[in-house]
Specification:
Arc Repressor Mutant, subunit A; 2 domains; single chain; about 0% strand; elongated; mainly alpha
């Protein structure tokens, strides 16, 4: 069933529909939270739970507001947007910024349910040539994404890994269409340069 059908069913009292929505997006939202809050994994887990709590509270709002309630148009976009706002608010409260990691080391954890096959998630890096499909390269790809500055990393994960259209990316992050395209281009160029020695030459 579509997100819209599940959400309407949930508003009408079907908890199983909420569970299905949760299972559909839990891995993606958790990984996205950890993408932004790379240096704060415990906070990322807390923000993840809060995002889904807010989705659950929509049923209460629906019942309280009745005909005045404005339903969520896109559950996917709404969840990513809430996750983004929660993470950014947390960082602002701490008055810290996420900086470029020289080593790529840290507590960030990638959820395997989110990741598409290498040839899909990183297709732009290879052009017409075939990727080296092995675990070593896969690990290097993830490590390079991890080292991207947060502003580039977030756009890349939304657009390339989650395959969201630019319209949703801009709505989630609050940046303009031009800024999103520029950041994605910079991310691709950075990754291609970092991985150039590992890519198969024609």
């Amino acid at each position: 069933m579509s997100d819209e059908v599940l959400f309407e069913s949930f508003l009408d009292g079907d908890d199983r529909s909420y569970t299905k929505l949760y299972e559909r997006y839990d891995g993606k939202i958790l990984t996205y939270q950890r993408t932004i809050l790379r240096d704060h994994p415990e906070a990322a887990d807390d923000m993840f739970q809060e995002a889904f709590l807010r989705l659950f509270r929509e049923r209460k709002r629906h019942r309280e507001e009745g005909a005045n309630y404005k339903p969520i148009q896109s559950v996917r976009s709404w969840l990513f947007r809430v996750a983004h706002n929660l993470a950014i608010s947390y960082l602002r409260q701490r008055k810290k910024t996420i900086t470029f990691s020289e080593t790529g080391e840290g507590d960030h954890v990638w959820d395997e349910r989110l990741m598409a096959p290498v040839e899909e998630s990183f297709a732009e890096l290879y052009g017409e040539s075939d990727p080296l499909q092995d675990e070593e390269l896969y690990g290097k790809l993830l490590a390079c994404v991890e080292m991207l500055p947060m502003s580039l990393r977030e756009i890349y994960v939304l657009k390339e890994v989650n395959n969201l259209p630019y319209e949703e990316v801009t709505r989630i992050t609050g940046v303009t269409y031009e800024a999103a395209r520029m950041r994605l281009s910079r991310a691709r160029k950075t990754l291609r340069k970092a991985l150039s020695q590992y890519l198969r030459q024609e």
